[in-house]
Amino acid sequence: MTLRVGLTGGIASGKSTVSAILAELGAVVVDADLLAREVVERGTPGLAAVVEELGDDVLTPEGDLDRAAVGALVFADPDARRRLEAIVHPLVHARAAELEAAAPEDAVVVHDIPLLAEGGRADSFDAVLVVDVPTEVQVERMVRDRGWTREQAEARIAAQAGRADRIAIATHVLDNTGSREELRAAVERVLAELVARA
User: Fold this and answer.
1) Region of 148 on the Ramachandran plot (φ > 0 left; ψ -120 to 50 alpha; else beta)
2) β-strands 108-112, 172-175: how paired?
3) How confident is the model at residue 76 (pLDDT cuts 50, 70, 90)?
4) Half-sphere exposure of 86 (CA within 13 A, CB side)
5) Which residue, 15, 40, 49, 184, could crosslink 131 as a Cys pair with Cβ 3.0–4.6 Å?
6) Which residues line the annotated binding site?
7) 122-134 residue pLDDT tens
8) Distance separating alpha carbons of residues 158 and 117, to the nearest angstrom
9) Residue 28 — φ and ψ, nearest 5°?
10) What residue spans define the domains of the chain?
11) What are the phi and psi torsion angles at 2 (to 5°)?
């Protein structure tokens, strides 16, 4: 029987690191961010629908989706964000379902979903892993690793669900304030527990 696991975490929490560790340990990872890019690649019906809804300004001169332009638009305009999500989310869900259906029968299928707490789908998984760090650590990482200003980092954090909201949906919380080795050990423990329970 396939074990369905949701994985989430705030920006700069280390969710991508946990996702990579799970893949190394043999899990089938379905990455919602990657799928969100795939469904709006040049030539896709998804990209055509986004352009029809948001206009040609969201395209690069080459005809690809201009992620920076879209990001600026939807960050400033909640209605534009809802319209974009109404196009992209169903396409991502359909593609994720295809990938899950193609997984081996006894696989651990991990759905890496940045906005799982916001989407209200946590109860559709057998387990939910939340990668957690204090807000101040998120800010420090974004300033250090991404070159953002403190204000940019705080605004992006404020646009996501809060820590308490994410922890509320968790069956397992992975603290990522230590070393990568400590994080890997925690992921290994949780995965072993999930497999044993299944």
Assistant:
1) beta
2) unpaired
3) confident
4) 10
5) 15
6) 12-17
7) 999 999 999 999 9
8) 14
9) -90, 115
10) 1-27+107-198, 36-95
11) -70, 135
4-61: pLDDT as tens digits: 999 999 999 999 999 999 999 999 999 999 999 999 999 999 999 999 999 999 999 9
State how far the Cα of 175 lies from the Cα of 10, in Å rounded to an integer: 12
Asked if residue 3 lies in contact with residue 107, where contact means CB atoms within 8 angstroms, the answer is: yes
198: tokens are: 């299944």
Detail the residues annotated as belonging to a binding site for ATP.
12-17
- pLDDT classification of 75: cutoffs 50, 70, 90: confident
The yes or no reply on domain 1-27+107-198 and CATH 3.40.1440.10 is no
Q: Residue 88 is encoded by which pair of tokens? A: 């992209």
Q: Which two tokens stand for residue 122?
A: 């946590």
Residue matched to tokens 């690069």? 60
Is residue 87 scored above 80 in pLDDT?
A: yes
Tokens of 134: 């204090």
C-alpha–C-alpha distance, residues 149 and 142, integer Å: 8
Q: Which amino acid is at 195?
A: V
Q: Determine if the pTM surpasses 0.85.
A: yes
Q: Smallest Cα–Cα separation from 194: which of 101, 109, 114?
A: 109
Res 96: pLDDT: 94
Sequence-distant (6+) residues with CB within 8 A of 151 are: none
